[in-house]
Amino acid sequence: MERILSDIRSVPGVTGAMVLAKESLNSYHLLPASFTAKSIKELGRKLLKLSERLPPHSRLNLKFDNGIGLVYNLEKSVVLIFGRSNLEFSLLRLVLKSALQSIERKLEQEVPQPDKIRETSTFVIDKANLNLLIEAINLVSQGYVKDQGIFWVTQNLRKAKDDVIKEFPQISSFYVDNNGKVSILGAPKEMLDQKIPLALVKWIDLFVNKAPSPGERDRIADIKELTTRISKPLEGIGFYDLYSKVAKKLV
Predict the structure, then answer these.
(1) CATH 3.30.450.30 in the chain, residue ranges
(2) Contact, 91 vs 11, CB < 8 A?
């Protein structure tokens, strides 16, 4: 589903896309960072209500102060696309011709989750969000320097990265220097792969799990404390929500 959403969002003028499955009530989205986890849930509820009032297999055009919205009411899903006024409609129609069919096919195997709107395990990744995630990793790692030392931090950041690469080879371009700081070697295109947020969050969680911690500790609370300085933008892109799922092994 992430690939389909990425294809839609790649159309010039498209700023975001969301799919809501009518039976399972699962939601999938690639939306601008200004959408918080709370606003996405509310958007899902409104989208579901709107689909109930629309004729089957219909399209609704919406106008906003800063752009447009397109709602496609399909059999198994309702799709919402945000765009600028200069959106390339001819290319979008071409992309949607196969994308909408692919969405419906993927939802045939969905498992119903009554009365629940769920988010997927990702959020939109761009250069700004990528830099924010790298800053989050560095704030977390540097928070362990005082107790564990730079050598321990560097060694275990690298070990955690090696573990994550097995599942997410996209992060091979990330580098850990001898001071335990993470950076990117160059700026390859794969750094904006939509799986990067999940990969980096899993990297953080694996690193934190390697720290010797006396007694029971709330890893989620620890992460929030270590990243307090940038907590607002992290909250805005759904970072803590995703970290919570990773820490609880839900994704």
Answers:
(1) 2-109
(2) yes
**What is the fold, at CATH topology level, of the domain defined by 2-109?**
Beta-Lactamase (3.30.450)
Structure tokens, 235: 């909250």
Quick check: 145 and 155 in contact, CB under 8 A?
no
Predicted confidence (pLDDT) per residue in 200-242, tens digit: 999 999 999 887 754 434 566 688 889 999 998 888 888 888 8
CB 116 within 8 A of CB 44: no
| Tens digits of residue pLDDT in 42-62 | 888 889 889 888 888 899 999
pTM above 0.90, yes or no: no
C-alpha R_g of the chain: 20
